Every structure is written in C-alpha cells, then in structure tokens.
Amino acid sequence: MTARARPGHADPGPPGHLAAVILAAGEGQRLRPLTTLVPKALCPVGNVPLLDRALTRVAGLGLAGADTVAVNAAYLSGQIVTHVGDRAHLSVEPDGPVGTSGGIGRLRGWIDGRGVLVGNADAYLADPDRKPGEDIAALVDGWSGDTVRMLTKPVPPGDTGGFSGRRFAGFSLLPWRYVRDLSPEFSDLVRTVWRPAEAAGDLELIPYEGVYIDTGTPATYLAANLHAARGLTDPSATVTGHAEDSVIGPGATVEGRITRCVIWPGAEVAADEVLTDVIRAGTDMTVAAA
After folding, report:
1. Chain centroid to CA 6
2. Domain that holds residue 175
3. Do 36 and 180 lie in a common domain?
C-alpha cells in the first residue's frame, strides 16, 4: 500500500478508457426525516444538490455524458431519474439499494472493460485552491490501470479505523480486473475491493488536501452547508426577518430570526420563530443539527 503526495498541478484532462459512477441509491436513514422528502443525493448544499456537485466534479476531469458517467438510484428513484435526465446513464435498483459493490456489479455491462472512478453522492469536497475535478485529479494522474486508488484524509485522533491511518474521502478508482467479478447482489466495496486490494498490496492511498465532509447526519449536513455558502440567500427568497450565517434556498420565506440554519427551497419561517443550528423544510419540518 502506498500514499502519494498531491502533485503541484495535475492535468485534469480526460483519462483514457475510464468511466465514472456516482452512487446515489442510499436511503439516507441518518438524515431522516429530511430524506422522507427527497433522496439524500438531492439534498442541497449551498443551494446545489449533492448529486450535481458530484457530476460537476467528474465533469472537471473530462467525464460527462451517458456513455461515460452513470448514476445508480433505488430509494425515491423516480426523483433521481427525473433530476439526472439524459446527463448520465441511469441504473435503477428496483428492489432497494444493493450496496456500493452491488451497485457497481449491476453496471458491469455498461462499464465494459474500463476502469471506473466511483464517487459517493453524499460526499462534500471543497479545495479553495482548485476547481472541482482538479482537486481529485491525483486519483487518475499517472494511474497504471492495475491498482485500486482511494482518496483519503488522515484518521481523526482516537479513531482506530481506516486504512494505514487514513480514511476514505468520497472517491475511489477501480481497475477492471477488480470490477469484472463483482456481483449485482448486495455487498459493499470495503469487503469486495478495498480490503482485498489492501491485502494484495494493490491499494494506493491518495491524499486529499481540501475539506471532506460525509453529509450523512444533520450535524455534518449543516456543517457542509455552512462551509460551502455561509450567508447565502437565493435571489428568489423573501427575507423580512433576520438571517445570520445561514443558507436560504430558492422561493423560501424567512419572517422570523435564523442563525446558522439551512432553509430549504420553498420552506417558510414564521415571524414568531427563532431558529438556531437547524434545517427547515416545508412549513414545519425542523431538524436539529444535534
């Protein structure tokens, strides 16, 4: 296993014989009740759906269009299908999510011998020094096509998990020789690819120098929003109350006081409400970032 330093200015041009898959099938149980309304991949961060952020990132590497990019869907799949349209190949899992490995296994025919860049739709990545795509270019830069690569950050102090002191940061790169045997049945990439590659000495750990947040909980979801766009108010929102360090979505109405909040598109905050560190959806769904 090796860890590679970030090159100074990696060229993010189109990698040869490479596809991308954005995993967007999860139920987002830890984000409920927000994910009773929309799938986690469509939850907005800085007023941009997480899925769109992932598609923009792979497009920055030259990977775009239904021949080159796929998105899987299961939970509330109709919303994903409508949102993606013809921007990517769609793989719908009709009986529910089949895990990260199963999702790739179902796409083997479409991948068809290529290496595949796999990204989690719920991963928030931000590097102030690089554009989306350029920030993860080290994953594909100089790749032999034989090793498994993983974007990583240091494991937090006291955490004994991860891979040689580093943790997964949302994207990995898989060679066809690992993909071709993946089953479409439920499983995860940790068991079927990452740990076997680690044991075989085939795992390369690529440092990510920017900010990575797994947006799976209300607290981390709020943190990602505030990092992305603290103080952002969409021009179509109406704010007659007081808003501080918050993100206010299109068509939202804020008549009360909010501090460090995310107000979803079309949501409302009444004049008598005082909200702090919460996500508001609709007129009365309030989720605390606890």
Report:
1. 21
2. 2-214
3. yes
DSSP symbols for 129-152: TS-TTGGGGGGTTT--SSSEEEEE
Bond preceding residue 265 cis, omega within 30 of 0: no
Dump pLDDT digits (tens) for 140-178. Answer: 999 999 999 999 999 988 777 789 999 999 999 999 999
Residues in the chain: 290
DSSP class of 163? B
**Cα–Cα distance for residue pair 229/27, rounded to 1 Å:** 25
Closest CA to 237 of 279, 281, 280, 268: 268
* Shared domain check, 275 and 154: no
Percent of the chain topping pLDDT 70: 94
CATH number at residue 173: 3.90.550.10
152 in the same domain as 123? yes
Cross-strand partners of 206: 151
Same domain, 234 and 206: no
Tens of pLDDT, residue by residue over 12-53, are 344 558 999 999 999 989 999 999 999 999 999 999 999 999
pTM of the full structure: 0.92
CA-based nearest residue to 1, from 182, 188, 147 = 147
Q: Which two tokens stand for residue 216?
A: 């799976």
Mean pLDDT value across the chain = 93
